[in-house]
Design goal:
Length: 357
């Protein structure tokens, strides 16, 4: 018993001795650019690419870092100061992953530029298959009131209503929308700089993309080769589809941007990412004015008139959209010159966000 008590005392002394001195803190790694993708297919290298693979292989992001608070391991290039992250599909995953990264004590992200780069559905009135679109507004499509349109008044065009309003597109606009994360206007100077830098990028097409274009021959926006554009993005965790929903998307974006934005692309994550960056900015851990969103058009958010929404939805599979492969390539071709320009001019852009003179 004496030996047991002595053993316990010695163990406690060792434990307290180990706690008496705090471990030396390491200086956080300064990051220049964070590339944000949403999903990957299979492995992150060497197989059919998702949104992340070309960035990993070509920048390259040659180091893997453990990231238990996120969706998957981080990728890193120490020489260039670039970090890559995959958020997972959906608003909730992008919010949690970006917040987890922003609070990670290993990194100093206060000067980092954030490039969200991924695929999206497009509005055929404005976009063509394999287009690359820089986002001016990110609008949330989930926060609101909803009733089944079959129970709505006959003069309503939709049963979806702005949060705390009583009718579709009711004015005045709710005063505290910024607290709900409904709308985000991305830094217009940074947006214009990125667009001007990349607007003449040579983009590619494919047989699948051209076949999709031919099906939408009655839509002027679809009748041009792939190009770099600017437009507004609608983010919603619900994977919506159809001509009537496409009309709603245009009206919803027009309402929340007060006529300044035009609905071009739709995916699921970007308002979640922007919400996390907003809060990290408030905490001094990120600069939301350094955030960019680039989305490529792999498919359309509505069918042609001769096909029902249900029939069209049957053919929608992530990674196998009509314009998927050229779009993944075009997003990289458009986004990578922006990353390289920031790195090459870091002495200037570290403290001043780039703009067109």
């Amino acid at each position: 018993m004496v030996y047991l008590r002595l053993s316990i005392i010695l163990s406690l002394m060792v434990a307290f001795a180990g706690c008496s001195k705090a471990p030396e803190s390491k200086t956080p790694i300064p990051i220049k650019v964070v590339v944000v993708a949403m999903f990957e297919i299979g492995d992150v290298e060497g197989d059919r690419p998702g949104e992340f693979q070309y960035w990993v292989e070509r920048l390259p992001l040659n180091e893997t870092l453990n990231f238990p608070q996120g969706h998957s391991p981080l990728r890193y290039n120490a020489e260039k100061g670039i970090l890559g992250v995959t958020t997972g599909i959906g608003t909730q995953f992008s919010t949690a992953t970006i917040m987890g990264l922003g609070m990670d004590p290993r990194f100093d992200l206060s000067k980092a530029y954030w490039l969200v780069a991924g695929i999206a559905g497009g509005d055929p009135e404005d976009t063509s298959p394999a287009d690359a679109v820089w986002t001016d507004w990110a609008i949330d499509g989930d926060i609101g009131h909803e009733i089944d349109p079959r129970e709505a008044p006959e003069d309503w065009t939709t049963g979806y209503i702005p949060f705390r309003n009583k009718a579709p597109y009711q004015m005045p606009m709710p005063a505290s929308d910024q607290h709900w994360g409904v709308r985000y206007k991305l830094n217009p100077e940074l947006l214009n700089w990125a667009y001007q830098l990349t607007k003449n990028t040579e983009l590619i097409s494919s047989e699948g993309a051209e076949n999709l274009r031919l099906k939408f021959e009655n839509f002027d926006g679809a009748q041009h080769p792939p190009r770099v554009q600017q437009g507004s993005h609608l983010a919603a965790a619900t994977y919506w589809h159809g001509a009537l929903m496409n009309d709603w998307a245009n009206g919803w974006v027009n309402y929340w941007t007060e006529g300044d934005g035009d609905f071009f692309t739709a995916a699921m994550e970007d308002t979640g990412t922007m919400q996390a960056l907003t809060r990290l900015d408030n905490a001094g851990k990120a600069d939301i004015d350094r955030a960019m969103v680039l989305r490529g058009v792999t498919n359309y958010t509505r069918p042609i008139d001769s096909v029902t929404a249900a029939q069209s939805l049957e053919g929608e599979t992530v990674g196998h959209y009509s314009a998927y492969m050229p779009t993944v390539e075009n997003v990289y071709r458009t986004g990578s010159p922006v990353v390289e320009a920031i790195l090459e001019n870091w002495d200037q852009y570290k403290d001043k966000v780039p703009s067109v003179d």
